[in-house]
């Protein structure tokens, strides 16, 4: 195709082979332009949404077709702002496109078909470049009813601390406090944990922690001892020393056998050791 100074449409197909039979793996539509002997390619997102409406919410520009659930959207973005404030994080300006499903997301960005995505109904794509975020969201829908505070906390925290160094049990503990889990609030989780503790007065919390024991086996989804203990620790640590100390504990590294990296950071930030772990856990439980 000859390219001049105007945008041209490029349609690209990716062909694969399955058991010797050629098949279409993906089809893409891109916009192309030739300028000063250079070729530039871009997504048709802007063209495909040129008739959409926009609304400014803080540092987010929301793009939507006709309407969106203002109450739910404000709840979502207010929660984002609250989490970011707690994490002492200032995000880049964000262009947020609100789609009905993942199929619409793909169509807007120029992915006409990709076999890998054929069974995915809800998902979101994002990127960050030139001090700006782009989110094309096909998960929440314009009604903003699908977001989970627990997962949202993880998403915001992982913008501050890399998942390569974050300790998952501590990560989950912070999410319990700030977003609950599996539809349960932190207060409900704590109530179930206290009930388990009351029924097991001789519990070896250190062993249960290292085994990541599920203490609510009758529930639809598991609640783990290590996550809940960390929620208690983080709650106390944040109150006494602030979020900086919590971040230090969070950044102790991925879980390893024996949790040596965790207990080293735990002793540094809280004074809790393996030797006094059971005593300190009981003190935190009984203080609630």
Tell me about this structure.
By secondary structure, the chain is of the alpha+beta class. The protein has 3 domains: 8-44, no CATH class; 48-147, no CATH class; 168-286, no CATH class. 42% of the residues lie in helices and 22% in strands. The protein contains 11 helices and 9 strands. It has helices spanning 45-48, 70-86, 102-109, 149-160, 168-179, 186-199, 205-211, 225-241, 243-250, 260-270, 277-286, and strands spanning 8-18, 21-35, 38-42, 53-57, 60-64, 94-98, 111-114, 123-129, 132-138. A 5-stranded mixed sheet has the order 4-5-6-9-8, covered by helices on one side. β8 and β9 form a beta hairpin. α4 (149-160) crosses α5 (168-179) and α5 crosses α8. The longest helix is centred in the N-terminal third of the chain and has 17 residues, at 70-86. The protein is elongated and about 75 Å long. The relative contact order is 0.09. Mean pLDDT is 94; it is low at 1-5.
Question: Any descriptors?
Answer:
288 residues, alpha+beta, 5-stranded mixed sheet, 4-stranded antiparallel sheet, 11 helices
